[in-house]
DNA sequence: TTAATATATTGATATATGTCAATATAATAT
DNA sequence: ATATTATATTGACATATATCAATATATTAA
């Protein structure tokens, strides 16, 4: 059954031995979420990593004048580890289910044990953290040094190319949340979507979005 | 001599054995820089980590409409490792000397070897990467969801509390660069410094800056 | 010392973008 | 079907902030 073998689909656990997998199995906890339910909250203590294996979720930053900044969307299978695991033992972003979703919690103690005992696993873990770091620098750069339109185009391309991996794609987040991904008000998001549509670059039909000219969208995204 | 024993002052290397330290010594390269010289550049291939042991430097992001975003300032002793080491083998930020500075280059191959062989070192390395991640999330949050004044106050507090660790402190970066730290134009930086001075919160005397009311500066920084 | 250049400072203006308000449409409940 | 609520859309306006321009001060060169 899928949930029983949750670790099989997560490449993070590929290099583990039978015993190590058994250890994980004995100590994991599965949790199921309804849409919009919070999985963990920024500032709360982090004790477990998560293997996210069903549904969709969003990672977001809270605080300041904005209600939130959406960092990225999550789909199966994703390994999510708190940034505070080696210092303050707190979460530094929040995670919330978008659709019905399931996550498997694994105690950080066990993860640290695996890191020390299994070199391949340690490497995979290091790769994930480094990838998060790269992602964060890119986000930092684009959110501070691009205009709204460029940021929105970037978000649309991210959704089509990386998250939904489809060209007409069905938005599973709201349009205001599309704004939160691009650091702008919901009104600006609506307005700019309309503008892109008027210019024939995209097609918006309710929640179905079609990118008609990805090349041009990339140009706009690049040159702000 | 200081340079010969460069690794002694960097806590990263604390847990290494004599043999491992000898390995580092045989494979390190020391490089000396003049003010404003680039140590490594964003997008360039990364092959070595750096132990920064003399002078001051700045980490900054390039690209977009801004000339740069200064992430943080570096002083001895700091271990600097590229975010691309586990994926694209590129640097994702640039590093530039502020004053005369010295850095010790160590091949990433050797670092990876130490990570696999020495568990304490692996843990220290993981802690550093995680700390960078936390720092990056905080920067992302404050640069996108605070007003200029709050961002400038944050930068001033960072300089006094974390970087210079002094209260009247002598700025070693320019005031335009103070703007680049807070994501604003140099004119805005000048203007707001003047404003803070008029309000009696700081004192600016050339490059000497005194924080007269840190409590209030923190408040402004928090509440934008 | 004087000229020349870079840095600092301030003011006026333009622009990006958010906020508020009005209305329209869609979804849901009664 | 009608009322009710949530979502979407657009317009008018306010404001944060950058840009441009003018001038002042400091620093360096001749």
Tally of separate domains of chain A: 2
Largest sheet of chain A: 4 strands, antiparallel
Count of alpha/pi helices of chain A = 7
Main interface: chain pair and counts: A-B, 43 and 43 residues
**How many β strands of chain A by DSSP?**
11
CATH C-level class of the largest domain in chain A: Mainly Beta
Q: Unreliable runs of chain A, pLDDT <50, ≥5 residues?
A: none
**Helical amount of chain A:** 40-55%
Radius of gyration of chain A: 19 Å
Tell me the CATH topology of the largest domain in chain A. Answer: Jelly Rolls
> Taking strands numbered 1, 2, ... along the chain, how are they ordered across the largest sheet of chain A?
1-8-3-6
User: What integer is the average pLDDT of chain A?
Assistant: 93
CATH architecture of the largest domain in chain A: Sandwich
Task: Give the H and E element order of chain A.
Answer: HEEEEEEEEHHHEHHEEH
CATH superfamily label of the largest domain in chain A: Jelly Rolls
